[in-house]
Amino acid sequence: MTADSVIELLENGRILTTPVLRAAAARLVPPMDTVAAYHFGWIDQTGRPADGDGGKAVRPALALLSAQAAGAPPETGVPGAVAVELVHNFSLLHDDLMDGDEQRRHRDTVWKVHGPAQAILVGDALMALANEILLEQGTVDAGRATRRLTTATRKLIDGQAQDISFEHRERVTVQECLEMEGNKTGALLACASSIGAVLGGASEADADALEDYGYHLGLSFQAIDDLLGIWGDPATTGKQTWSDLRQRKKSLPVVAALAAGGSASERLGELLAADAKNPENDAFSEEEFAMRAALIEEAGGREWTSQEARRQYATAIAALDTVDMPEDVHDKLVGLADFVVVREK
Amino acid sequence: MTADSVIELLENGRILTTPVLRAAAARLVPPMDTVAAYHFGWIDQTGRPADGDGGKAVRPALALLSAQAAGAPPETGVPGAVAVELVHNFSLLHDDLMDGDEQRRHRDTVWKVHGPAQAILVGDALMALANEILLEQGTVDAGRATRRLTTATRKLIDGQAQDISFEHRERVTVQECLEMEGNKTGALLACASSIGAVLGGASEADADALEDYGYHLGLSFQAIDDLLGIWGDPATTGKQTWSDLRQRKKSLPVVAALAAGGSASERLGELLAADAKNPENDAFSEEEFAMRAALIEEAGGREWTSQEARRQYATAIAALDTVDMPEDVHDKLVGLADFVVVREK
Questions:
Q1: Residue B143: which region, alpha, beta or left (left: phi > 0; alpha: psi -120 to 50)?
Q2: What domains can be seen in chain B, in order of their start residue?
Q3: Which region is the signal sequence (chains A, B) (predicted)?
């Protein structure tokens, strides 16, 4: 698939999903409806219509493709696409507040504009709305889809809890980090990749295989995100240099480097242990972060993470082979995976 | 029913529900499992087992009784009782944070002890867990129950949003206030009163009638709570004198007094409008609050609210007549309503 056809795929997903998503958000009582519209980029801070960047909309595209993988029309996947987007945005609203992040998609975050209470309330409302939208379908398949969505939602919350708790720990194993990233990024992509199929009547085995595709795609994406979090170009990522090191994230390159052994690994461990006793690392110079990044690379953390991204990608693509689906749908799922994994920011 | 048999009813509900609730909370990843156990009163701040006050447990008792109203054993209602308790406690965790409340059940609130992020995360997790527990039953009736629970959860969130927004408005109508209280208090009691019956295979009509009972019981409870919020004895309520007036709550006695017309109503309206321009009402003297309370009473707000509590109670009890249920179950639902409505704190 060409890059253009992936863009078209994402755009078609948006066209089918956005009206239903807007109608869902409009159910909230004031001022939550306005706050939600601001969060999704449909209005600006003054309430005027905006043509906002609602994100890449990979999840809706996956949900519609997964309906087609089960032989159903993309429309069958729409309630699933909307529900997954609602859960994704619930987590953004709450995570931005918990992490104190002031910017999202180049705009002030909801807690920054409308206050913490609205960020909590609207997040809560979007999570509940997601289940409501699905269960309103009133079918047995909608019940199956809701059960998978609820499990994914719980894992998403587990992942955020683990991410926060890891920041306060000196050591995290590679296994723990992969589990956290699987919860935080893999679980909802897994759900997005299977929910349309479930609504289209797919077998549990096919739904599980599609979940595997999405789960490992999420882990591949996250491995690359972890690389960009340290070595990404600020001009393209829109973040500070050494962003994850500044936040003391126990991301994959860091934990892999610490687990590798050898002199660079040991030196890195000593530095990070000393850092943990000094909460003011904003005062660190560029050179001090660059030195830590160099040690991570020397210990093999960068190369291991890069290979891990490729391994997870291969596992994701292999999972598709067990599902009997139209060839063009298979190609689109591969094309979307390429788009998600090969990126500069 | 005697007071003793109501206490026994509540205790039996706790005995059936608490082990399942504890097992559900234990699924959360650390440190959320500990934070949840603290919130439910099972451990103290140092992690030692505690014999905490987990609340009156009216909702679980209603859920088990509603299973019996459908001719099923109380055990059939247990997943519903647990799910409703989880949603109730999700809302307590988030509301305490949004409202800045530092005490709940005579203990420091979760955000005060474990920080705002844990209050948000564990609240989120309990909401998701509620749906998970129900859907794991894997039956069509569990799907119906989850749909009702999700609708109730959304109303609960709507009610909290309305409550917060009303505090910033000068005027709220009696109708708006009743709608807010119906969402905030009625909806989840309605769900508790029907969810066991739904799990026991009750018809939609019977489930709706049981919801009506719970909804109006909630409104009756809330009307009395609003009276105690102004005229309650601090020694029994555990709150400050004139508690709701200090918080500028647009509670039923206030909005009814403002809507009544006449000289006391007008004088009250002028005072509250002036108050709204002065955010520092902590500096008000006891006499100033007492004067506002006297005006509310003189305008008829106290008497109207007291009558409203009786009207809502009568509507609740009448709703039970449309459901064909064992006589002893009917009597227990009436006994529980009496217990909920007649109280001193």
A1: alpha
A2: 3-341 (1.10.600.10)
A3: none
